[in-house]
Design brief:
Elements: H1 4-29, H2 49-59, E1 64-68, H3 77-84, E2 88-92, H4 98-111, E3 116-120, H5 152-155, H6 158-174, H7 194-206, H8 218-234, E4 240-245, H9 250-259, H10 262-276, E5 282-286, H11 291-294, H12 308-320, H13 332-345
Parallel strand pairs: 1-2, 1-3, 3-4, 4-5
Helix pairs in contact: 1-6, 2-4, 3-12, 4-8, 7-9, 8-10, 10-13
Length: 352
């Protein structure tokens, strides 16, 4: 007859065995490519990007990573590969702060694979404290470091086993778009609408700006840039860097004016150029004052996210070193003044 004590210890033993088996299965399949590039199945771009990006950066093959926030969703790596003769990979963190992107950049630099790094610089990502993280979306730091002793949240996460592993297997079974670096995370063209974007802008404009002035001070943005990007570039002088200011819509800049941060943003852009232009391994491109792009709201899903056609224009400009977008000492002030004039003079009715 089994005593309660014996039943307790047997239950404890079998529970431990099940936990170990689950952890072993996660380790072997490794759905986030945390330990290795998958050898017996095609890796899928299925998990939330914040969880998948560090594994891609650490274990995939590339020589030209492209880092940024969700603005990169329509960036097509194969188009970049063809235009610039590189092997690129897209590493994006939705609403990523400069601190979070800096953690990802650390992994890229440590691998030593990158010959060229392209960094999509969204000014908003440098707001706040140097170590600011997204308030809602977790950054799983246990996936970003090299400490094997804190991997238990990965190995023993039941959702990885019951949700993510089946998704990866099904994607392989049916060969879905999520297996391609070119089609994963793409948005729906049906989302693009001039009327919807203008309506959204008018809605947010009527609301209280609700911006903590302290988070948007120029000095804090400079400090965040110095710690989370500039210092890393300065320590990686053998790698070529291309930084570009993405062509967010003119309404995004009009909203910045509404919030009272337009001048801080423009001065920050000037600061970024001043600090990087003398390094020798950095090019900076600015697409934010091109009216043909930023005023054509039919190419936008919201105030900041644009179509793959615009991404192709960006890639073409970088590949050809297009002087219309490449910032120099002689053009930086003129370009910033041009953007300022566009924002101040903008008549929303002309866009409708």
């Amino acid at each position: 007859m089994m005593t309660p004590r014996r039943w307790y210890f047997l239950s404890l033993f079998f529970s431990a065995v099940l936990v170990l088996l689950a952890g072993a299965l996660i380790f072997i399949i490794d759905p986030l490519a945390h330990y290795r590039y998958p050898s017996f199945y095609k890796p899928g771009f299925i998990a939330q990007e914040r969880f998948l990006a560090p594994g891609i950066a650490r274990n995939f093959t590339y020589d030209c990573p492209v880092l940024g926030d969700s603005i990169l969703e329509n960036f097509i790596p194969s188009y970049l590969d063809n235009k610039m003769a590189v092997n690129s990979i897209r590493l994006l963190l939705p609403s990523g702060s400069s601190y979070e992107l800096g953690k990802l950049l650390d992994i890229v630099i440590k691998t030593g694979r990158a010959k060229k790094i392209i960094y999509e610089l969204d000014v908003d990502s440098f707001l706040g404290e140097v170590d600011r993280k997204h308030k809602i979306w977790e950054l799983p730091l246990y996936l970003y470091d090299d400490n094997p002793f804190n991997d238990l949240p990965y190995l023993l996460n039941i959702s990885y086993l019951t949700v993510l592993v089946p998704k990866v297997m099904l994607a392989n079974l049916f060969n879905t778009n999520e297996l391609s670096k070119n089609t994963a995370y793409r948005d729906n063209r049906a989302l693009y609408s001039r009327k919807k974007i203008i309506a959204k802008f008018l809605q947010v404009q009527r609301s209280d700006p609700n911006l903590d002035v302290e988070t948007s001070t120029l000095e804090k943005m400079k400090k965040s840039f110095a710690v989370n990007l500039l210092s890393k570039i300065e320590g990686d002088r053998n790698t070529a860097y291309i930084i570009y200011f993405p062509p967010t819509s003119i309404l995004a800049w009009k909203y910045a004016e509404h919030k009272g941060v337009l001048e801080s943003y423009l001065r920050f852009k000037k600061y970024v150029f001043a600090k990087t232009s003398q390094l020798g391994n950095v090019q900076i491109y600015d697409f934010q004052d091109d009216e043909k792009i930023t005023h054509n709201l039919d190419n936008y899903a919201d105030l900041t996210h644009y179509s793959s056609d615009i991404d192709k224009l960006i890639i073409n400009a970088m590949a050809s070193r297009d002087n219309r977008y490449l910032l120099t000492e002689n053009t930086v002030e003129e370009r910033l003044d041009n953007l300022r004039r566009q924002v101040v003079r903008l008549d929303i009715s002309q866009l409708e």
